Amino acid sequence: MSNLTGKTALITGASRGIGRATALALAKSGAQVLIHYSSARNEADAVVEDIRKAGGRAEKLGVDLGTPTGPHELAKQVRTIIGDRLDILVANAGISKAASIEETTIEDFDQLFAVNVRAPYFLVQQLLATMCSGSTIIFTSSLAARAAVGNLSAYAATKGAIDTLVKHLAASLGTRGIRVNAVAPGVVETDMSNFTKAEEGRNLTLGMQALKRIAQPDDIAGAVAFLASDEARWITGDTLRVDGGSKL
Ligand code: NAD
Q1: What CATH number should be reported for the domain holding residue 50?
Q2: DSSP state at residue 117
Q3: Which of 11, 13, 78, 143 gives a 20 to 30 Å CA spacing to 26?
Q4: From the Swiss-Prot or TrEMBL record, what is one GO molecular function term (predicted)?
Q5: For ligand 1, what atom is nearest to the CA of residue 220?
Q6: What's the mean pLDDT in 20-46?
Q7: What band does 2 get if pLDDT is binned at 50, 70 and 90?
Q8: How far, in Å, is the centroid of ligand 1 from the Cα of 116?
Q9: How far, in Å, CA of 34 to CA of 37, rounded?
Q10: Nearest ligand 1 atom, CA 39
Q11: What is the mean pLDDT of residues 94-112?
Q12: Exposed e or buried b for every residue in 57-95, given b needs 16+ CB within 10 A?
């Protein structure tokens, strides 16, 4: 499959987990990929290396997206590499924190919204000038926005905000031919959801899914690659559940 040949793609939080798998999938489909990372420079180097070894094109960019100006800085760096045309923006970087409302601090709440909502919002704003008809934005939502799973109210609220942004930005950017969607993974075995490594966590996860295995980052990356492709040209304003039939 090489349907993204000639396209440029930025994937935030691509040094590991779902972002890494997405970067590999988009590169395999022919896109030139920009691997954004926060502090894991070595891991980002390894992703770039993997892609180049397979004959693909990749560069890395390190920026903390938790600061108010992080998205602006990242957009600036992106423009120096790709010039004035970005075809695919995958806003994947995110943090989570399991805590009840009683336990959640103002600092945790603000940090969750800074990384999961403020950063993708202003990244889109800062990169809009590089996006044109056919460009596409893919946000990362979560099962948690749709169903009360875990002790995740503040995190879930950030993902609910993403689902709302998808609709509003799809409506406003559609006139420019830009599609905006999100994927909503269920539980995926990554550093974020490492409770799946323990038996209790696995059983809890399998108990709420129709499909009885634990999702891997690749399971999400394929759906992102689909949304990024021309096969999804008539899909916009949607949050695609990619969760093995969780909480049906
Ligand atoms: P992960 O922890 O493995 O990866 C998160 C990525 O975000 C990392 O690359 C990290 O460096 C980056 N990041 C975090 N804080 C950052 C900051 N301040 N600045 C820049 N980058 C930062 O987790 P993952 O599971 O791969 O998560 C990817 C996305 O998928 C997140 O948006 C997450 O909310 C979402 N998601 C994950 C699951 C799951 O079960 N793993 C389920 C639903 C949604």
Answers
A1: 3.40.50.720
A2: I
A3: 143
A4: oxidoreductase activity
A5: 30
A6: 98
A7: low
A8: 9
A9: 10
A10: 11
A11: 97
A12: ebbbbbbebbeeebbebbbebbbeebeeebbbbbbbbbb
Å from CA of 91 to ligand 1 middle: 10
- Domain assignment present for 176: yes
- Tell me, yes or no, whether 247 lies in a domain: no
Q: Which amino acid is at 104?
A: T
Q: Is the separation of the CB atoms in 226 and 233 below 8 Å?
A: no
Task: Kindly report, residue by residue over 117-172, the tens digit of the pLDDT.
Answer: 999 999 999 999 999 999 999 999 999 999 999 999 999 999 999 999 999 999 99
Domain span including residue 17 = 8-242
Annotated active-site positions, please? 155
Q: Which residues' Cβ are closer than 6 Å to ligand 1?
A: 13, 15-19, 37-38, 40, 64-66, 92-96, 115, 140, 142, 185, 187-188, 190-193
Instruction: Provide the 3-class DSSP secondary structure of residue 105.
Output: coil
Q: Which residues pair with 57 in a beta bridge?
A: 32
CA-closest residue to ligand 1 atom 34: 94
Query: pTM of the prediction?
Result: 0.98
Q: 3-class secondary structure for 150-161?
A: CCCHHHHHHHHH
Q: How many domains does the chain have?
A: 1
Average pLDDT (165-193) is 98
Looking at the domain assignment, is residue 231 inside a domain? yes
- The Å distance, Cα 194 to ligand 1 centre, comes to 12
Q: Calculate the alpha carbon distances from 61 to 12, 103, 135, 192, 238 in Å.
A: 9, 35, 21, 22, 29
Average pLDDT over residues 188-213: 96
Report whether pLDDT(222) > 90.
yes
pLDDT > 90? residue 1: no
Residue 228 placed within a domain: yes
Total residue length of the chain: 248
